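Teaching assistant here, posting this on the class forum so everyone can see the example we discussed in section. The complex has two components, and the goal was to see what a joint structure prediction looks like when all of them are supplied at once.
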Amino acid sequence: MADQPLMPSSPLEIEEREISFSTRLNEFPWWFVAMISIAIWVFYIILTRENFNEAFNFIKVGLTITIQTALTAYGIALIFGLIAGLGRLSKNVVSNNLARLYVELVRGIPMLVLIFFIALVGVPAVVNGLNAFGEWLFTMGVDPIAGLFTAFNNQNISMNARAIVALAVTYGAYLAEIFRAGIQSIEHGQMEAARSLGMSYGQAMRYIILPQAIRNVLPALGNDFVSMVKDSSLVSVLAVRDITQVARLYAGSTFRFREAYVTLSVMYLTMTVLLSLLVQQIERRLRRDV
Amino acid sequence: MSETKDNIIVVKDLYKYFGDVKALNGVSLTVERSKVVVVIGPSGSGKSTMLRCINHLEKPTSGEVWIDGELLTGSPKQLNETRAEIGMVFQLFNLFPHLTAIENITLAQKVVRGRSKEEAQEIAMQQLRRVGIPEKADSYPRKLSGGQQQRVAIARSLAMNPKIMLFDEPTSALDPEMIKEVLDVMLDLASAGMTMVCVSHEMGFARSAADEIIFMDEGVIVEHTTPEGLFSNPQHDRTKLFLSQILHH
């Protein structure tokens, strides 16, 4: 037993090795290598060819807006989603149905249409409503608070802000379903144990259920953030100067469509691949800890 | 209003239906302070449902539950206050997996009782010593054996200084070699004068610790007597049959 031969001693072992090697070849993520190669190749072209270089320098100006829009909208969507997700699980008929209505409305309308609707119809309507409420408060004589409501003005709410609201409302509905599923995945015994100690429903949610539920849905939330980065390109229809809009402008003025859209695609691809790797890393760590 | 001071739990005409299933079919029960009551009966007889109605984890379909002279009305505020006074231990422990043992024990003390972090931790350590595993304070539940988890769960309830402890089959999910360590804690608690209602088929525990024993079947209390009376002289055929089934092997 002391001196194990280093070389495989039986034909069977050799065969096992060969099988595992070919399996490894088959399971190797070739697609990933191909994708990275394409990205590297495009980056090389961007660095070396003047037309591509110019396109990239033009388009990268929109990166701040893209990242800012995706991050802000996602942050707000998390809040909307959590509230609507809790509403979906509530025994209260009103909040339950309101949450359901919100989710179903959003899921039944194409995202592009929703973005037009919220930015150009929804936001102005809400602002007009707030203004009218403020006017009414003035007539009632509660001036100091009334000023808060009349301060809003449709002219000074930028398309940028409207786009963020639109994305947040849309994604809130998707995130609501994730939160709902996460909360439902927690064993009922957890709620019972918390309640049996005298905690209120809200305390049990906050200290016991949500910490576990959010941990369970972290990968799903991460994947939705990746989707948000991609879907943020839709705000270009509102003339928000994100990378998509800037690329369109560049292509339109120079007629270099190839340079514009190759560069744009690789920029999105880089962001989503990096984020996906991050999500995978989080997922792996969570699985190790459980 | 006419309850005497010593009856800490009074249950009157309790009915509980789950859809068409009648889990409780008119249960009345009085438990005196510092008594240990063991509830036995076949599965589906309503033992756990009765226990869970005492702290309103299940809302009874009809009937009254009085805790320490106060009628439970179902108002959220009163329920939270009452439940803080009633510890409950579950079959599957239900420890909070994202918290360490000591965090499991301090959380409700801080959130519900409003104790400071230091005070809660001191009390938690006292209770962990009482159940014999102070060295596991910083362990997460998944690192503990079933018996240790259940002892942490008991410590978690005791840290709230409850007047009553309810045990819902606390040892039936445990490996045989861990049952004793949990029963020892329960015996210790019984001798310290805690009011306890235990759904359990541990007959050894019933014999040595119970003041009263209840046999339930089909949602009613068939017999309510002393352990001695039940084991040596059961009155009803159903009780005899059940005892022969659980005792003969």
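For the discussion questions: The first strand of chain B starts at residue 7 and ends at 18. Chain B has nine helices and ten strands. Think about how each of these relates to the inputs above.
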